[in-house]
Amino acid sequence: MPETPPRHIAIIMDGNGRWAKLRGLPRTAGHAAGAETFRTIANYCRTLGVEYLTVYAFSTENWKRSTEEIGGIMKLLAKYLREAMADMEKNHVRFRFWGDLSRLSPELQKLCMDAQNRSASFDDVQVNFCLNYGGRDEIVRAARDLATRAKAGTLDPDEITEDLFAQSLYSAGVPDPELVIRPSGEKRLSNFLPWQTVYSEFVYMNVLWPDFTPTDLDKAIAEYHRRSRRFGGV
Ligand code: FPP
To answer: How does pLDDT run across 104-162, given as a tens digit for each residue?
Structure first.
């Protein structure tokens, strides 16, 4: 058991494709295994008392993948959300979706909204699914929102502060993640939460996401605790 975990952990669930390739399986099999890992890790975060878990499930860049792979990921998400809703009373996980859902199928959009509404009062871990999410896109949307309000005369540009700006992001009201984990050996942020991670600790791990276990999460949390966090102070 690690020390007190961070309040907010963010994870780039990377390496599903390589995991599948190593086994001679289609990429969608890697995503299916990745979805199971997500279920395990979300439950483990709940056990540890983590308040927020944010995961990169589908980026604005992921539309460049094959129709088959995109369809496979969307199907898995729908399956996962249906199962999560069936288990909702038991698990008490609160769901939020960060990203532009309008490009998803009407069926998946409805599932997301139902999961969000039905879990709104739960107070165990809050899972933020980044779906059709891009960090720059999130910032541009916030800028557009504030500009629209300024143009309408309801906002004085001089009142725009970091706090006010943050209120127009998908993450409004959620504390920034203290820890960002990227498995699979890649060492990039890939347009994931650029605003929210300016002071986060980054832990990169050489394990593919489908192989990621609660013990790996313990290791990442231990590494986070080893680092001193001074926020630019002394
Ligand atoms: C990155 O691995 C993973 C994704 C782009 C999709 C993540 C989706 C899931 C884990 C499944 C759906 C999620 C839930 C929670 C139901 P990659 O495909 O880029 O792997 P690679 O770098 O090895 O090719």
So the answer is: 999 999 999 999 999 999 999 999 999 999 999 999 999 999 999 999 999 999 999 99
Radius of gyration over every alpha carbon of the chain, rounded to an integer in angstroms: 18
Distances (CA, A) of 77 to 2, 3, 149, 213, 214: 30, 32, 35, 20, 22
- Under the banding of pLDDT at 50, 70 and 90, the label for residue 232 is low
Q: What is the dihedral of CA 1, 94, 227, 201, to 10 degrees?
A: 140
- Band (pLDDT 50/70/90 cuts) for residue 34 is very high
Closest residue by CA, ligand 1 atom 24: 17
State which ligand 1 atom lies nearest to the alpha carbon of 19: 23
Task: Supply the DSSP string of 145-157, one letter for each residue.
Answer: HHHHHHHTTSS-G
For 8-32, give one letter per residue: b (16+ CB within 10 A) or e.
bbbbbbbbbbbbbeeeeeebbbbbb
Enumerate residues lining ligand 1, CB below 6 A.
13-18, 31, 34-35, 38, 57, 62, 73, 76-77, 80, 184
Gap from CA of 100 to ligand 1 centroid (Å): 18
Active site residues: 14, 62
pLDDT digit string (tens) for 42-85? 999 999 999 999 999 999 999 999 999 999 999 999 999 999 99
Residue 228: per-residue pLDDT:
61
How far, in Å, CA of 201 to CA of 168, rounded?
24
125 phi-psi bin (left φ>0, alpha ψ -120 to 50, beta other) = beta
What's the DSSP call for residue 12?
E
